[in-house]
Amino acid sequence: MISVNDFKTGLTIEVDGDIWRVVDFQHVKPGKGAAFVRSKLKNLRTGAVQEKTFRAGEKVAKAQIDNRKMQYLYESGDSHVFMDLDTYEQIEIPTEQIKDELKYMLENMEVTVIMYGSEILGVDLPNTVVLEVAETEPNIKGDTSSGGSKPATMETGVTVNVPFFVNQGDKLIINTTDGSYVSRA
Question: What is residue 127's DSSP assignment?
Answer without folding.
Answer: S
